[in-house]
Amino acid sequence: ARAQSVADTLSQAVSQAEAAVYIVDNTGTITYVNTGAARASGFAPEALIGRKYASLYASAFAAERRHALDDALSARQRWTGIVSRAGTGGKSYLAEVVINPIAAANGEINMVCVESDVTVRELEAARMRRALTTDPLTGLGTRGAFNQVIAELKARPSATNLAQAQFSILFLDLDGFKPINDLFGHDAGDEALRALAERIRATLRSEDSAFRFGGDEFVVIAPGGGSEALAHRIHARTKEPLKVNKRLVNVGVSIGIARFPEHSADVELLLKLADQAMYESKSTGTGGVTVARVLRSH
What is the mean pLDDT of residues 113-125? Predict the structure, then answer.
């Protein structure tokens, strides 16, 4: 009697659980759903039972029609992951799924699939990732995003053909920007930074990436060749008069360039060389573009 009481309690707990619970047989067909599954899907339990579990994917996510989850079901293996689900009213949501094989008394292996709606959690996580990698003022990448790109470049196989893997680092520092803050205030300075960042972004090629390092310093990673021509285009575009507080102001840019692997195969050193070259440009008093002079030792 006690065992039956425990079994009944467990059955009620599963039936009334907030999470969606499905039992799937060896053909991938749903044989049981709880109220959480009906609530999440928007379908009555009788409309779910007899359907293929794989049919619950959101139609907008066709790439998931053959998901790792399907492979785990076929292999009768435990699996945990996040999938897109079709909700009511044509909307979709993100579900964290845990599936476990359970042996029935007759030896048949059924899969118990437990799903929880994690849409809010995942959207917040995505927002936080964007905050770490996207500068809120300019929309360019942050220094953290730059470090991620550099880490990917450093992780390239050593057998990579260096000539084919070439890229350049452009270090940019604005000239004449401080007077904007001093004369018009920081709000005007922020407006000017946004406009200048947009000019930089609009000048880039599709393969280039721009990052704000803080203040009025920017860095561009430019794969392949043509970095010097790109730098001159950025310089020309940036020094065009800028409208701030209904007045035209002039802001220039000093740019330094260091190339991989020509100047160094060490990306940290490349950044330093580009920074030094930028200061050479700035020392002229008119900005411009300077290519690093220090060559990699062989």
Answer: 86
Q: Which two tokens stand for residue 215?
A: 């203040």
> What DSSP character marks residue 87?
-
pLDDT tens by residue, 49-94: 999 888 787 654 444 456 788 888 888 899 998 888 876 666 778 8
H or E, element range at 148: helix 143-154
- pLDDT level of residue 295 (50, 70, 90 thresholds): low
* Among 292, 295, 263, CA closest to 278: 292
Tokens of 16: 């009334």
Active-site residue, 135 included: no
Q: In whole angstroms, what is the distance from residue 98 CA to residue 89 CA? A: 25
Q: Tell me how far apart the alpha carbons of residues 278 and 146 are, in angstroms, rounded to a whole number.
A: 18
Among 117, 173, 175, 216, the active-site one is: 216
Mention every residue, 6+ apart, whose C-beta is less than 8 A from residue 115: 19, 20, 21, 22, 37, 40, 85, 95, 96, 97, 98
Matching residue, tokens 């940036």: 238
Six-digit token pair at 228? 């010097």
> What value does the mean pLDDT take over residues 284-290?
88
Which residue type occupies 49? I
d(CA 267, CA 264): 7
**199 CA to centre of own chain:** 23
Instruction: Give which of 175, 172, 204 is closest to 278, Cα–Cα.
Output: 172
Q: How far apart are the first and last CA of the chain?
A: 83
Q: Token pair 């972004």 is at which residue? A: 201
Q: Is the dihedral of CA 157, 160, 164, 168 positive or negative?
A: positive
Whether the model pTM is above 0.70: no
What burial letters (b/e) apply to 30-68, b meaning 16+ CB within 10 Å?
A: bebbbebbbebbebeeeebbebebbebbbeeeeebeebe
